[in-house]
Amino acid sequence: MLVPSPYVAGNHQFYNASVLKDAGAGQLVEEKTLLENPEVLRDTIRGFFGSPMILESAAKNAARLGKPQAAADMLQDMRILCGGSR
Hints:
Distance between the termini: 39 Å
Radius of gyration: 18 Å
């Protein structure tokens, strides 16, 4: 469940969360929705735990978006920027 903060510049957390939601990797719930209707939190959590298929699907979709080599790639780029070799 993704609850982006509405108090950040450019609402970028909402847009980042939307990418995950659109990929089926999570469910986006806006903070204002939770403030207006706190039961949404409970219902959303129950929905996840009530359906192992939903959790499994979200996990698989999130894994597809992952970049497991990101840290190694960044380190390599930093070495090159600092005059090192590949």
